[in-house]
Amino acid sequence: MSSLAVLGCMWGDEAKAKIVDYLGDKADFVVRFQGGSNAGHTIHNQGQKYVFHSVPSGILYKQSKCVIGPGVVIDPFSLKAEIDALKKLGIAFENRLFIDERAPLVLPLHQILDSGTEDKLGKQKIGTTRRGIGPAYSDLASRVAIRFGDLAYPEWLEDRLLNLYKFHNEKLSAAKLKSLLKELAELYADLKDFSAKTDELLYEAYLSGAFILFEGAQGTLLDISFGTYPYVTSSNTIAGGISIGTGLPPRMLDRTLGVYKAYSTRVGEGPFPTELKNEIGDRIRTQGNEFGSTTGRPRRVGYFDAVAAAYTARLNGLDAIAVSLLDVLSGISELKICTGYWLGNKRLESFPSHPLELSKVEPEYLDCVPWDADISGCKSLSRLPKAARDYLDVIQDLVDRPIELVSVGKDRNQTIKIKSKK
Ligand code: IMO
Ligand code: MG
Predict the structure, then answer these.
(1) What total number of domains does the chain contain?
(2) Contact by Cβ (8 Å): 374, 408
(3) pLDDT given for residue 27 in this prediction
(4) Which atom of ligand 1 is nearest to the CA of 38?
(5) CATH code for position 238
(6) In terms of domains, do 37 and 124 share one?
(7) What is the Å distance from ligand 2's center to 294 Cα?
(8) Ligand that comes closest to the CA of residue 12
């Protein structure tokens, strides 16, 4: 009996799914505990590319059961489409996917509200994925959400829909209500077999010796409480969110593995101290294909930020880290790692909590020796150029956590497992 969380530790897109996939061959359960279809988890295996938004990426392994916990907001329309697309690729779902009855739904109304708010805010916008995530979580907190299990009770559902639209001062004509109820009934007919009390399932599984893998979505710096608020997502992305998002007692989380890119990226608005608005950033963006898998937006790119990384390692109580996309840095002529923040003539001791401070800090950099060689075929640490190994050592020392995995390419087998020195 054991459990392991794989968590994005920056602003999302750290290649969490690649790491989940690498570890997934031993997983009995792969569990999403927060977020929704704002996630874009990409896996490349044997020439096939898979992009997951709501389905846990463990579905690729036949022996894994997949859980969408009550902390996840579910867009039933996109979930159904995602399942159908995966079925077409030959992936079986029967008795393998479990969706918690308590998971709140993202409805078309939430997407309209999300986009409407973004448009209205203009310069103040968050730069959301416009998937309706914020409004869906807000409705949960406001106690007007419709939950997956509500779909089993048409009369109750009708009442809840009327209540929801009233809450938002939105018109819901009789015809629109009727068609929405019909659409939801059709979706539920397809999805109801997945409905479960996933807290019971996971509790029993843990006690009976299963290996449970938690697949984080987004990243710690997007956490609603500890991230770079207000430029965050609307869920708790940190390890502490796992218990809240699954109902599994916190003591049943045995291990946390944090995923960091070898550099930094961010999509959407908000401060980004190490951002590179120059040709080096452009080169990393091109080499790393840094364009959103959910929205297609070009990602903002910057140097590795060890101040932020140490902060997120602590918040998640990381046991170890995985460094992804190291291969992307091959041939980047100027490599640096941020070792500190200066605010005026003061060196900050910790990661600022206020966006005004974070937007004003000047990074202090350590120059690193670049390397040119293509490392995408390296199967062990000793095969990496010395400069790349030194680069990893700097990260390990500054984040103060052992590096356990290094990813040097998209494919499952382009992963180096390290026996750490610490
Ligand atoms: P994965 O799981 C990167 C960002 C959005 C925006 C902010 C709020 O693929 O790492 P939201 O739609 O959640 O209300 O948007 O959060 N964001 C992500 N950035 N990767 C993600 O997921 C993200 N999910 C949300 O760009 O800045
Ligand atoms: Mg993403």
Answers:
(1) 3
(2) no
(3) 97
(4) 24
(5) 3.40.440.10
(6) no
(7) 6
(8) 1
Residue range 358-381: average pLDDT? 98
Q: Which residues of 248-274 are buried (b: 16+ CB within 10 A; e: fewer)?
A: beeebbeebbbbbbbbbbbbbbbbbbb
Domain boundary at 148, 170, 191, which? 191
- Residue to probe by mutation, ligand 1, list 115, 218, 266, 324, most atoms within 8 Å of CB: 218
Same domain, 265 and 243: no
Q: What is the pLDDT of residue 422?
A: 45
**Whether the CB of 216 sits within 6 Å of ligand 1:** no
Kindly report the backbone phi and psi dihedral angles of residue 170, in degrees, each rounded to the nearest multiple of 5, phi listed first.
-105, 140
298-307: pLDDT as tens digits: 999 999 999 9
Same domain, 308 and 390: yes
Give pLDDT tens digits for 108-121: 999 999 999 999 99
| pLDDT over 90 at 421, yes or no | no
422, part of any domain? no
Q: Return the structure tokens found at 92.
A: 């079986």
**% of the chain at pLDDT higher than 90:** 96
Which residues have CB less than 5 Å away from ligand 2 (the ion)?
13, 40
The CA dihedral of 410, 56, 269, 356, to the nearest 10 degrees, is: -110
Domain with 138 in it: what CATH number? Answer: 1.10.300.10
CATH code of residue 265: 3.90.170.10
Residue 104: both structure tokens together: 């709140």
- Which of these, 349, 368, 30, lies nearest to 201 by C-alpha position? 30
Residue linked to tokens 């039933």: 76
Domain boundary among 240, 255, 270: 255
CA nearest to 407, candidates 183, 250, 191, 257: 257
pLDDT at 12: 97
319 is catalytic: no
Instruction: Based on the fold, state whether residues 348 and 212 are members of the same structural domain.
Output: no
272 shares its domain with 218: no
294 and 152 assigned to the same domain: no
Domain of residue 88 covers 2-101+195-255
Q: In whole angstroms, what is the distance from residue 87 CA to residue 192 CA?
A: 17
Same domain, 268 and 323: yes
Dihedral over Cα of 244, 247, 252, 257: its sign = negative
Q: Is residue 247 part of a domain?
A: yes
Residues 276 and 374 in one domain: yes
Q: Does the C-beta of 312 come closer than 6 Å to ligand 1?
A: no
Please provide the distance, in angstroms rounded to a whole number, between the alpha carbons at the two ends of the chain. 25
Residue 198 near residue 72 (C-beta atoms within 8 A): no
- Is 41 part of the annotated catalytic residue set? yes
